[in-house]
Amino acid sequence: MRQTLLTLLFIFTPIIALAHTGRSDSAIVRFLETNYDVRFSDNNSMVLFKNGQEKFDDLFKAVNQARQSIHLEYFNFRNDSISHLLFGLLKAKAAQGVEVRAIFDGFGNTSNDRPIRAHHLEDLRKAGIDIVEFDRIGPPYFQNSFFRDHRKVVVIDGMLAYTGGMNVADYYITGKPEFGPWRDLHCRIEGDAVAELQKVFIDFWNKETGENLSGPQYYPGEKLATDYFFGLKADTTCSRRAKTIGVANRVPRKSASIIEDTFVEIFNTAQRNIRLVNPYFTLTKRMSRAIERAIKRGVSVEIMVSAKSDIPVTPNVVEYYSDRFRRMGATIHVFKDGFHHAKAMMVDDQYIFMGSANLNGRSLRIDYECNILVADSAATQALYDIYLQDIEQHSVTLTAADTVRRPLLRRFVNWAYHLIAAIL
Q: Model confidence over 65-121: pLDDT tens digits?
């Protein structure tokens, strides 16, 4: 009898594991492996942060415990209290001998209302922080509109990685007066997928600095982060240390189509449902057609858009596409309580595609971006719980009556603006 039970356990354990991870024979995993040589690993943990307070609390604890290296890549560090706290921690770690490297985007810095100035950079470098500005804004200026670094990646000791939609700014916690709270999404990863995000940073760092940063110290391999870092938010799902994760890194002229191709492939291969939240839902024609095909195939498509935005004109285009897809059969949830800046989708209750990429032409076809594909049903459920809470507590569902009530002039303006969506 005992031998029979052991035999049954041997047979069914792999099946149970596949049910937890959600990888099975995922078409999207095969697509990324085959077409873009994306490496998937199956030994990862992941925790989600649904707001800035959660993310920065966890990140600061991890930074405090760093022993060897801290690598940060952000679109911008807003020169406010959160960045002051972060840079203060980084200075202290540098004084302890920890290697601290940071890179930020020149346009991202200049375009925010509290940029880092030259004297701030000098102060950070004197304190031992190696910080680089990617493509600093300067004459002839027009060249600075291309190929911005929009990624958000932090890697600590090669064992922990943070990525998602958040930069470093107070308003991820405090919101902004013009639209209220700022909602966003970020995550922390442990496992072999961290090495892939480390490679994203190091490849970009070497390209920009001309250095040849390398070595096993940045890729510690089998070390468990939980043996070295304490007090961080735990992955409490049933697939802890068993999540399948791959990194989709968009590099202009090298992997230029990876993000858009993946989005399109997801809409082409989804079987049951797609739940999507994205702040700049201004779409390329290719993306718009992919969504239409999914709806026509009978896939349940839910889209959460934000009623407010930090970019003018964007709400008009979002409203145009919202009305259009609702008429076709999609369910549109409009987030009302602030600005929803998260970039994530859940597919067939089995996998997540999330990161820095917006659904606009710039993210899909121009900028450096980084998304992760998490083929795991437990992680997908965890994200869906957050998504459902946003629907129930902070959103309204778009109806036919809402569209009819829009003034004719507003509908015309929405249509007109959607014609220039490619440059938004």
A: 999 999 999 999 999 999 999 999 999 999 999 999 999 999 999 988 899 999 999
Cα 259 to chain centroid, rounded = 12
Domains of the chain: 19-423 (3.30.870.10)
Could you tell me if 218 and 69 are in contact, meaning their C-beta atoms sit under 8 angstroms apart? yes
- State the Cα–Cα distance between residues 238 and 256, nearest whole angstrom: 35
Which residues share a beta bridge with 162?
Answer: 154, 188
**Tokens 């003034």 appear where?**
407
- Predicted TM-score of the model (pTM): 0.92
Distance CA 261, CA 268 (A): 10
How many other CB atoms are there within 10 angstroms of residue 109's CB atom? 23
Q: How many angstroms separate the CA atoms of 285 and 412, rounded? A: 19
Q: What are phi and psi of 169, to 5 degrees?
A: -165, 150
Q: Where are the alpha helices (DSSP H) in 210-313?
A: 258-269, 285-296
Contacts of 184 (CB under 8 A, 6+ apart): 51, 52, 55, 164, 165, 166, 172, 340, 341, 342
